[in-house]
Amino acid sequence: MESGSILESLGSEIIGVMSPVSICMFLVVLLVYTLSSSSNSNSDPIRTAANLVYVETSSDSTTQKLEGSLLNALVFVILIAAVTFLLVLLYYYNFTSFLKNYMRFSAFFVLGTMGGSIFLSVIQYFSIPVDSITCFVLLVNFTVVGVLSLFSEGFPIFLRQSYMVVLGIIVAAWFTKLPEWTTWTLLVALALYDLVAVLAPGGPLKILVELASSRDGELPALIYEARPVVTSGNQGGRTGLGMLVGGVSDSESVEVEMVARGGESRNRNSGVEYTSVQIDSDDVEGESTPLVPSSRERGGLENEGRDVQGEISPLIELLGMGDAAGEVRGDDLDTEMTTSRGIKLGLGDFVFYSVLVGRAAMYDLMTVYACYLAIISGLGCTLILLAVHRQALPALPISIALGIMFYFLTRLIMEPFVVGISTNLMMF
Predict the structure, then answer these.
(1) For residues 343 and 289, is the Cβ–Cβ distance under 8 A?
(2) What distance lies between CA 413 and its chain's CA centroid?
(3) Angle between the 396-409 and 347-361 helix axes, to the nearest 10 degrees?
(4) Which residues contact 40 (CB under 8 A, 6 or more apart)?
(5) What is the predicted pLDDT for the residue at 8?
(6) Strand 334-339's sheet: what is its strand order?
(7) Catalytic pick from 282, 307, 349, 364?
(8) HEC states along the chain?
(9) Nearest in space to 340 (alpha carbons), one of 226, 225, 251
(10) 280 classed as catalytic
């Protein structure tokens, strides 16, 4: 395979994950800049599950802030772990309908109440002339369409992806209202918890992903999906990286679906219109992705013992499923590939990446740039490690560690240096 096509596929896969994360962080920064001036008048801090024990005030000493924020982070992580273990138990005993209804309610609550509050704040800030009835109708439509697109079939994948990003923006915007000390300790605690929950033998996220993988089902969580893109022409298409759910990888199988060209059967004898073949990715030779190693060669497919000359798909050619003459086993059918495990990213990663950048936006834009680059670099490192180790990996620790480090380095060292030489006219 040529290096150009490898780099092109590698870039498309990484962009498919990093683009929504970047959009989410950018919009959270805009919200923080827009609404921070109006929220400064409210001196009373908000009360959430992240600060149940200690409510930070400006009059508290540094020791009190540190101890209280550590206690808040500990309680919040315990709550998250308890809820995750409860989800594991419900999923283990096949309470899938309850879990789906719970996720629908959660999405409806976030979009309708938390999103509605932000929507009203934006309307008031920009003095948009809209009456209460119109505002209510818009909010109800926005919420209902969001819940349907997230949990119902037949909606475009782009709409579902957009609402996943919106959910991340809304939750992250609320978390940015937490006090500073509580925010930093909470981010560190969640990164450590993600590390343990995914890599530890009895970690709840590890158990949940193993259960979903063994049942070949969807995870009971809000997950952003980045579908793999099938390229046309002479370039071979590739499958995705597997599944990245909160940094969790699961690339077990690839599904090859034989679909009649043009939506109609080309079978001469009214034969099979749709044929599904499940193959194991370890039995397929070909470069499935630049980040995932290739496997052994796969022979031709058989469809009722008939050989039909037809246009071979680049993906099938890549996997070695056609012969040298371009024949495909099937009745003049186009061949389409979809991965049963695409590139996916948990909603929590969107939220806490954006919380870090939103907190940086409360200081200055230079810190925002540094934190953004650090988070994107950490996510890229996670993808590379995912391809190397090919096992479950957490997505938060590397990005959060780099983001926090660059935040304080920029704020304490870089920003005073740049401001000093700029004010003294030493920078040209």
Answers:
(1) no
(2) 32
(3) 0
(4) none
(5) 58
(6) 275-280, 253-259, 334-339
(7) 349
(8) CCHHHHHHHHHHHHHHHHHHHHHHHHHHHHHHHHHHHHHCCCCCCCCCHHHCCCCCCCCCCHHHHHHHHHHHHHHHHHHHHHHHHHHHHHHHCCCHHHHHHHHHHHHHHHHHHHHHHHHHHHHHHHCCCCCHHHHHHHHHHHHHHHHHHHHCCCCCHHHHHHHHHHHHHHHHHHHCCCCHHHHHHHHHHHHHHHHHHHHCCCCHHHHHHHHHHHHCCCCCCCEEEECCCCCCCCCCCCCCCCCCCCCCCCCCEEEEEEECHHHCCCCCCCCCCCEEEEEEHHHCEECCECCECCECCCCCCCCCCCEEECCCCHHHHHHCCCCCCCEEECCCCEEEEEECCCEEEEHHHHHHHHHHHHHHHCCCHHHHHHHHHHHHHHHHHHHHHHHHHCCCCCCHHHHHHHHHHHHHHHHHHHHHHHHHHHHCCCCC
(9) 251
(10) no
Read off the pLDDT of residues 318-329 as tens digits, 9 standing for 90 and up. 334 344 444 444
Enumerate the β-bridge partners of residue 255.
278, 338
C-alpha–C-alpha distance, residues 52 and 50, integer Å: 6
* Amino acid residing at 232: S
Nearest to 182 by CA among 67, 75, 69: 69
Whole-number average pLDDT of the chain: 74
The pLDDT of residue 201 is 85
Summarised one tens digit per residue, pLDDT across range 181-218 is: 999 999 999 999 999 998 888 888 888 888 888 887 77
- Whether 194 sits among the annotated catalytic residues: the reply is yes
Dihedral of CA atoms 354, 291, 207, 247 in degrees, nearest 10, equals -10
Is residue 28 within 8 A of residue 357, CB to CB? The reply is: yes
The pair of structure tokens assigned to 258 is 């034989």
Q: pLDDT for 170-183, tens place per residue?
A: 999 999 988 889 99
Choosing from 194, 250, 331, 334, the catalytic residue is 194
